[in-house]
Amino acid sequence: MGIDISQDNPPISPEDPKYRALLARLQGNVLKPHGRDHAVHIFIRFHSQAEERVIRQWIADFTNRYITSAWRQYCEAREFKLNGISGRPFGNLFLTKVGYERIGHSPDRLDDPLFQSGMEQAGAGLNDPAPEDLEPGFVGRKIHAMVLLADEDPWRLLELRARVEASLRHLATVVAVEDGIALRDCRNKPVEQFGYRDGISQPLFFEEDVAAEYKRGGTDQWDPSAPLNLVLVPDPLAEAEDAFGSYFVFRKLEENVKGFKAREEELAQALGIDQSNPELAGALVVGRFEDGVPVLLRDTEHPAGEDPECPDPNTDPLLDFNNFSYLQAGSESKCPFQAHIRKTNPRGDSVALGATLEEERARRIARRGITYGERERGDDGRPTLEDQPETGTGLLFMCFQRSIQDQFAFMQRAWANNPGFARPGTGIDPVIGQQVRNHPGVQRWPSVWGDTDPGKQVAFDFGDFVTMKGGEFFFAPSIPFLRRLNGTVPGVEGDLKEFAAEGPHPST
Ligand code: HEM
C-alpha cells in the first residue's frame, strides 16, 4: 500500500524505510534546496519536426543520467556531514503543460489552473509587466521543459551544460538560459543582491532540520515544520505507487540595487532615523537586518555597543533567528505589516481577518532561488559597496508547492500586491509588490521603533526596485513517470537503483 501523505504528521525521518520509495521516486530540491553555488537553468522547446518517440527517449535518458532523486540528495548530504565528501552534480527536469502535450500526454489531471494557463496568461492577475516588456524567451508559451543543472565546481558545470546542450542538437531549441551564482556574505551565508541574508525561513520537512532549528532558537513561537502535502501531489501520470511530484514556479526578478539603496537612505531621512543606526530603514522594508536579525526583536543590526567586522552567532543569538510571530499587539510598530517577510509569511496576521493559523500556514512555499548577474568583487570575493548595479542582476526566484494558485500566486496577489493586507492602509510589499498602474501603494512607517502612536507614523512610497523579466509554471514529474517515457517499464528495481546511494552517480 502506498503512502497517504494527507495522513502524515510532520516532520518525517528520511531514514524511516516507509519513505524510501517515495524519496527515491521524487526529484531532489523539492524537500530541501540543492545547495550548490553554481546552477544553470535551460529552457527548452522541442522542434516541431522531431519525433515524439525520440523526445521521450531523450527525457528518459536525461532522467537516468542526470536527475538527482530526493533520496540520493539526502544520502549525499549525509555523506558530506560524515566525511566531507562534497556533493556531485545535481539535476532536475520540469515540464510545462504544453511540454506534456508535446510528448503525447494530456495533463488534464494536473488541474492547477495556473499551470494550465501558463505564466504569461496569468500575468495580468499578478500585475506582471505586459508581455512586450518581458524577455522574448519567456513570451508566447514556447517553453516545453526546463532543465536545472547545479554544481559546486563552475568548470564541471560548464562541461555538463555543454554535454546536455549537445545532446539536444537536432531535437530542440534552447529558448533561454539563466545562470545562477550564489552571493555569500562574510559568514559564507547566502545573500540576495540588495545585501540581505536569504534562505533563512523555510518550511522544514525532515525531523533533523526541525531539531536543529529547535536547538538554535526554539520552535514555540514559530513552528517551521511542514507536512509533505504542503509541496507534494501524487503524480497522476505515473503508473507507480509512492510517485509524487510538485508544482514549480520560475521567475527572473531583476533587482535595481542602486535605486533600492538610495531609497533606503531617503526613508531613513523621512523617518528621522538616527545617523548611527542607518540600517534600520532597510530592516523595516525587509523585516530583517542585512545579517538576518529580525527587526521585530531588535532595532539595531548588532547588539548595543558592538560593531563586529563579521557578526558571530555565538555572541549574537538573534542572527538568522526564526522563532517569532506577529501575534503580540503593537508588533507592527517594530516590524510594519508591509515588511517583505511579514507580507509573505504573516505568522498569524490573517487570523484577525478570519483565517485560521493552519490555513495561513498552508500558503507557505519551498523557496529555491539563486542570485544571477556579475558583481564587482573586492579582495575577499564579496561584492564591493560601491558596486550597485541598476540592471542585469537579480534573483532567479523559484519555489515548489502543492498548488500554484493557492500558494505562490495567492502570496503575490492577495498579500504582496494588496495594499489592504494585512490591514487597510498597509500598502504593497516594498520589495516584490507589483501595483496596479497609477494606484500608488504608499505605506506607513513607524518613525519611532516600538511606539504604537499612529501620530508617529510617516507615509512614504517604497517600491518598484524589483522587475519581473519573465518566467513559467511547471510540474516536477515523478522519476518513474520520466523513466518510463522510453517505453520500458523499469519496475521497482529501476527506481530503487537510487537506494544504492554509495554507487557511482550515473553522470560521473
Ligand atoms: C528579488 C526579489 C526578492 C528579494 C530581494 C527577496 C528577499 C527576501 C529576504 C531578504 C528574505 C529574508 C530571509 C529569509 O527568511 O529567507 C525573504 C524571505 C521570504 N521571501 Fe523573499 N525576496 C524576493 C522575492 C520573493 C517572492 C517573489 C516571494 C513570493 C511571492 C518571496 C517570498 C518570501 C518568503 C515566503 C520568505 C520567508 C518569510 C518568512 O518565513 O519569514 N520572496 N525574501
| Uncertain segments | 499-508
What is the rounded Rg? Answer: 23 Å
Most strands sheet: 6 strands, antiparallel
What are the secondary-structure elements, in order, as H or E? HEHHEHHHEHEEEHEEHHHHEEEHEEEHH
Task: Tally the helices.
Answer: 15
Shape: globular
Please report the total strand number as a whole number. 14
The percentage helix is 25-40%
What is the percentage of strand-forming residues?
A: 15-25%
**Between the first and last Cα atoms, what is the distance in angstroms?**
35 Å
Structural class: alpha+beta
Report mean pLDDT, rounded to a whole number.
93
**What small ligands are held by the chains?**
protoporphyrin IX containing FE
In brief, what are we looking at here?
The protein has 508 residues and is α+β, with helices and mostly antiparallel strands. It is 25% helix and 16% strand.
Explain how this protein is built.
With 508 residues, this protein is of the alpha+beta class. It contains 15 helices and 14 strands. The protein has helices spanning 20-25, 52-66, 70-83, 97-102, 113-117, 119-122, 154-167, 207-217, 257-270, 279-286, 340-344, 357-361, 408-416, 479-483, 491-496; strands spanning 38-46, 90-95, 145-151, 172-181, 183-184, 190-191, 233-234, 244-255, 366-367, 370-372, 394-401, 443-446, 457-460, 466-476. The strands form four sheets. Strands 7, 8, 9, 10, 11 and 14 form a six-stranded antiparallel sheet that branches. A four-stranded antiparallel sheet has the order 2-3-1-4. A two-stranded antiparallel ribbon has the order 5-6. A hairpin with a 5-residue loop joins strand 5 and strand 6. It is globular and about 70 Å long. The protein starts with 19 loop residues before the first helix and ends in a 12-residue tail after the last helix.
